[in-house]
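dude i think i finally got it to work??
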Amino acid sequence: MFYFLSPFLDEKELLNPEAIIIRKIRLPRILSAILTGGILSVAGVVLQSILANPMAEPYTLGIASGAAFGASLGILGGNIYILPSALFGAFGALILVKIIALNGGREKIILAGIITNAFLSSGVTFLKAISGEKLYAVILWLMGSFAGVNFDDVLRIFSGAVLVFIPAVVYAPYLDAMSLGDGRGLILGINENLTRNILLFSVSFGVALSVSSTGITGFVGLIVPHLLRIFIGASHRNLILNSFIFGGVLMLLSDGVAQILGEVPAGVITALFGAPFFCFLLIKK
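look at this
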């Protein structure tokens, strides 16, 4: 496999069927899974910190549901509209959360996210009901899958990774302070509202870029940060880097299992072990 990834292959070797499969199908799929897992895991770290809630992640906050609603509209309107529709949906969901939680604290933002998630999930269900012959495409996309991704998708997801990862690393010291509770950052001269808004918007657009290419793969952003906090502690710079790595590995393994089981959507695999973990956190907290 690694031989066919060499940049020094001649023209004859590049036309080898095995080389085509590895370079045009396998490699984009592997890169997409790793980057998507990294995005969702780092997004989970950021949201759990700025909202001081262990169950916060892009899906519980309504961001991914907004992107899903927008992308579903894009599928019905023609596949060329998926990306802008997903971005618009994620942005709209975040604005809706901010409006509902206007002048409220962190807990109110979480409640607003739950309300927004429920509302947009109903919207997605409505779109499925009127999608007609495109119903299968909408359902398959909503389940989350890396089948059929190409290097254009990889570039899009990589852009999302940059949007999520770089601001998270830059603001990591701020996250250390803000995760202690409301007002703790103010003591250190941190503008908490500005920091929270910057990170919310960067995470929203980064997740939307990922979701627009691969669909919904939930619970990775919930599981990885929690497990890593147990083993490496809560220092955010270290936590963010490791979350990106292990989130990518977890997503890659999930996609591998999905292929072994007959190309089932990777989102189904992540939900199978993620939902019980979510229930455990809910009971524990």
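The chain has a mean pLDDT of 82.
im so relieved honestly
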